[in-house]
Amino acid sequence: MVRRGRWRPCAPSPCAGPSGFRCRCPQCFLRGGIPIGLGTDGIRDLWSPYGDGDMLRIALGFARLHGLRTDDDLADAVKLATTDGARFVHRTGHDLVPGARADIVLLDAENVPDALMRAPRRQAVIAGGRLVVRDGELLV
After folding, report:
1. Which of 19, 66, 77, 118 has the fewest CB within 10 Å, making it most exposed?
2. How far apart are CA 100 and CA 30, in angstroms?
3. What are phi and psi of 134, to 5 degrees?
4. Are 22 and 15 in contact (CB under 8 A)?
5. What contacts 24+ positions apart, CB below 8 Å, involve 77-82?
6. What's the pLDDT tens digit per position in 59-86?
7. How far apart (Å, rounded) are the C-alpha atoms in residues 67 and 43?
8. Range from 19-28, 34-43, 94-103, 122-131 that averages highest in pLDDT
9. Mean pLDDT of 82-109
10. Number of H helices, E strands in the chain
């Protein structure tokens, strides 16, 4: 979970959601003990025509929306889209540990914030322990 107190306060902002739903800043949820994660259930839909299913882009959009600037905050945005988001799709043991599903993305970046900001080509993607992308090309 994101460490409390690092993100600066933000005012509620309108959301594209139905029935006048208004988004709230993430730190309000975290302070209230409500877990949050990032994800996507579609590539292009009524919520946004801009999606491509790339979780780094989802995390980058979140970082921009909430004005995240520091390396720690940018890394937390990626964590919301990976480890923290996994719990909402009933995936336990998401990290690189024995018994985990073995979903791994390899890319050329100095660190997590660099990967988020540059979104470099994925050199390899392993899904469920099976290589599905090599040198940026889909194998299956």
Report:
1. 19
2. 26
3. -130, 130
4. yes
5. 77/38, 77/116, 78/112, 78/113, 78/115, 78/116, 79/2, 80/2, 80/26, 80/36, 80/37, 80/38, 81/37, 81/38, 81/39, 81/55, 81/56, 82/55
6. 999 999 888 999 999 999 999 998 888 8
7. 24
8. 122-131
9. 83
10. 5, 6
